[in-house]
Amino acid sequence: MSGENSPAIRIHGVCRDFMAGEQTLRVLHDISVDIRSGELTYLVGESGSGKTTLISIIAGILWPTEGDVEVFGTDIYSLTDTELVDFRLENIGFIFQQYNLIPSIDAASNAAVPLIARGMKLHEARAQACAMLDKLNILDQADKLPNQLSGGQQQRVAIARALVHRPRLVVCDEPTAALDARSGRRVMDLLREVGMAEGRSVIIVTHDNRIFDLADRILVLEDGRITHDGKDVPEDH
Amino acid sequence: MNWIAIRMLTGDRQKFFGLVFGIAFSTLLITQQLTIFANLIQRGASAVYNIPAADIWVMDKASRTTDINYPMPSTALDTVRSVEGVEWAVPHMRAAASVRTRQGNLEGVAVIGVDDTTLIGLPRHMKEGDRKALADPDAVLIDDVGAARMYKGIDPIGQEVEMNDQRAVIRGVVDALPSFTSQVSLYARYSRALNYVPGTRNRMSFVLVRAQPGVEPVKLARKIEQQTGLRARTKDEFARDGIDFIIKNTGIPFNFGITVMLGFIVGVAIVGLTFSLFIRDNIKQFGALKAIGVRNSKIRNMVAIQALFVGFIGFSLGVLGAALFIWAFSANPTFKGFYSPWQIPLFSLVAVTAIITLTGWLGLRNVLKTEPAAVFR
To answer: In this predicted complex, what is the ipTM?
Structure first.
């Protein structure tokens, strides 16, 4: 695949501090890493290791205290707030642990949200969302409300929402954490199959060692530092 | 996104109905109470409104309203008639009396003496009977609210009453705006009224005046005051005097003001609480929208649309409720002639706008404060 090895994301010297009362707590220490296009990257580590903070910074929703983040050649934290919001809408798809679907609109409308946010007409956006739901084998649930769907189905709707506007980067936070093993595996297979199909980069924060075999690359974080970068997880992990 | 905002709102039916109820209740309370207040204080001028033919009311300098008057000597009538610009001037008497019905009921009434010849001083319309019947011996006309009070289920026409040891027969029912106290009014010819209400030498309460065509009533009133030493008020001024008297001398504005304020506070409390709960329940969804790339301006629009949507429905229901209230009680003599001037729904709209602006702003503050990164926590 062309461009498979070109860096989609360049992270250089990223640190992030949080205030804990009077104290400043550094949760990321001088992180530098490149993530290539067409790569399924896992961020793994114990709770509190800084992986959610790192993925938030990569996704442009949390400012680093120090360092630079380039996403597809754009230094995203040099953008104005509005430019950054627009950049996210154009380039990044989000999948959340708790799906965060809007409970009062059906699956197709939920999946269509990024298109509607871009100003597309509702029926056009829903048509495109249905096409994406079809790819994810859930078109028959398009008219159902989120509470009428199983956890796995909801997560597939969330994946459709993340992919419907053809972003170049997809970030996922524990996408299988709320699912049983079978559903989790199925969701990940679909995410890999559909999400990676257009050469986009997918970064997943996960604890779930049942799905580690699907990764192209695994970055292990410990105490805010990358301690491992490879195809497999270290044995002691 | 506006469609999504509306669906988010209506999807949570409990909170949606809570919000609509809060707005509707506030609107209803504010509109209904202000309507009653506005109409009630208008009653202070009902006697003036009942005689639209009179441009000017002339009275003793001490007189203040139609009910609080100090009688004048009968010579005052000729003095007023002599003022240039007066088309006509007629005597008018208003006094209190007690009547006893054949059924033995005792009732305090206002005896209103109208001009013997022209019958000026009578309300414009009759509800039953003919105004000419007032020429009959012992004839009196009763106002419709008084008839309903004194003769429930009985035809008042032909009923005899005893008034200060004198016989009077009700010959008709006039369609009149009731007074502030809804006191029964009996209309009689001026000469008969003098007999019904014996008293001191001076008996004439007012002189009702019509200005000649082309003469401004305001100027004529000032001229009458200058030339006669009496007090002369145009009908608008005198109506205002009656209203002002109620405003200044009763606790009505204060009490109604408190109720209106309570309506506003209850609205803010119910709507504010429900809206903040709605926002809290949807904060993750708003956070997700912000993360996905929905601009703050669009989020603001979404919250504004939600607030406007409940505001519009709630306000409409509230105004409809107030209108239904007025309609439902329109047959009740207490509420006779009640209507809601356009300023009252407008005032309610301003109050509702303040409620939804305040609560929407509080809700929006929470949404805008939410960091998109919170969705990953």
So the answer is: 0.85
